[in-house]
Amino acid sequence: MPRPYQFCSDCGAPEPRPVTAREFRCDRCGFRHFITPVPAAVALILDSEDRLLVIRRAHEPGLGKLGLPGGVIEPEETGEMGAARETLEETGLKVPVEAFSYFTTLNNRYLFQGFEWPTIDLFYLARAQSFDGVQIDASEVSEWMAVPLTDVALHDFAFGSNAEAVRRLQVRNAAR
Ligand SMILES: [Zn+2]
């Protein structure tokens, strides 16, 4: 696996030494670097007819593949706040923070600056009156779709975590 740190981020010495699979220590100053999961919020939004808001990704990783609105949670945000913000930024859809409820958590890896960082994807479920007013951010999203939940093509997702979350939602809704 490629190393996430080419230099010590404290003193600049080259190649912090791997101590374990997730700890890298600088031999010069002792600074310890850890690989820890990055929390990300992902939105599962259904309309009144149980159609899921699905996007097509406009950039790597996963360019051209399906996705869900979501991204890294920012400082001072809760997961629900992150889900609402990412939904607004990527799709223009205003879903109140209070409308999101926790659904499930899945592990993922995300290629960023040459390293596949582990993320912990937190999925939040919300119900929207409709998808009227969706206006995608073309730098992030090339297309949006309202897909009947039972018809979502799981194999077209960029990330296995997204496909698995949608599958769990399909199972849950089918059991109702
Ligand atoms: Zn150092």
Structure description:
The model has no long low-confidence stretch (mean pLDDT 95). The strands form 3 sheets. A 4-stranded mixed sheet has the order 7-4-9-8, sandwiched between helices. A 3-stranded antiparallel sheet has the order 1-2-3, with no helix packed on it. A 3-stranded antiparallel sheet has the order 6-5-10, with no helix packed on it. The protein has 2 domains: 1-35, no CATH class; 38-174, Nucleoside Triphosphate Pyrophosphohydrolase (Alpha-Beta Complex). It has helices at residues 79-91, 160-174, and strands at 17-18, 23-25, 32-34, 38-46, 51-57, 66-67, 70-72, 101-112, 115-127, 141-148. Strand 5 and strand 6 (66-67) form a beta hairpin. The protein has 2 helices and 10 strands, in the order E-E-E-E-E-E-E-H-E-E-E-H. The chain is of the alpha+beta class and 176 residues long.
Keywords:
176 residues, alpha+beta, Nucleoside Triphosphate Pyrophosphohydrolase, binds zinc ion
The tally of beta strands, per DSSP, is 10
Strand content: 35-45%
Order of helices and strands: EEEEEEEHEEEH
| Mean pLDDT level | 95
Shape: elongated
Helicity range of the residues? 10-25%
Number of domains: 2
What is the CATH homologous superfamily assignment of the largest domain? Answer: Nucleoside Triphosphate Pyrophosphohydrolase
Task: Record the SSE blueprint.
Layout: E1 17-18, E2 23-25, E3 32-34, E4 38-46, E5 51-57, E6 66-67, E7 70-72, H1 79-91, E8 101-112, E9 115-127, E10 141-148, H2 160-174
This protein binds zinc ion (ZN).
The site of zinc ion (ZN) has 8 residues, from loops.
